[in-house]
Amino acid sequence: MPLSEQEQRLLDEMERSLYHNDADFVSAVGGGRGRLNYGALVLGILVGILGLGVVIAGVIFHQPVIGLVGFVAMFAGVLLALRRTRRGRPAAAAPGAPRAAAGAGKNSASSKSGFMDRLNDRWERRDDDRE
Questions:
Q1: How far apart are CA 97 and CA 111, in angstroms?
Q2: What mean pLDDT is predicted for residues 26-31?
Q3: How high is the pLDDT of residue 2?
Q4: How far is CA 72 from the centre of its chain?
Q5: What is the pTM of this model?
Q6: Which residues in 100-114 are b (16+ Cβ under 10 Å) and which e?
Q7: Tens digit of pLDDT for each residue in 45-69?
Q8: Could you give the C-alpha distances from 12 to 1, 103, 118, 123, in angstroms and in order?
């Protein structure tokens, strides 16, 4: 069932507020935003194929230690292939400065309090009304 226009706007506003107010969460969850490192991908595939060959050699020669080394090499190859490049940290530090400046005045702080803060206040008022 698709979202209505109002629900879509509300969801978009919540997402913008999250990106604006919680930079630590965004940096932790936004790991998929890095660019794919193609050199690491190719190297990881080659290490994985080499590891598979070592596992097969361990089975042929009935040596579990060789098979274990091959498995570790395959695992390392997969980890290497899935590695992404990271972006620099200066962009993450920048949102902290405007937030500190926004708190200087009472009106500016209340006008930029964020959607989630207003939603939380409404929820708390709702609980207070029930009591």
A1: 17
A2: 63
A3: 80
A4: 26
A5: 0.44
A6: eeeeeeeeeeeeeeb
A7: 999 999 999 999 999 999 999 999 9
A8: 18, 24, 15, 20
Residues 87-127 pLDDT 10s: 544 444 444 444 444 444 444 444 556 777 777 778 778 77
Residue type, 86: R
Shortest CA distance to 75 belongs to which of 48, 40, 39?
A: 48
What's the chain's Rg over C-alpha atoms?
25
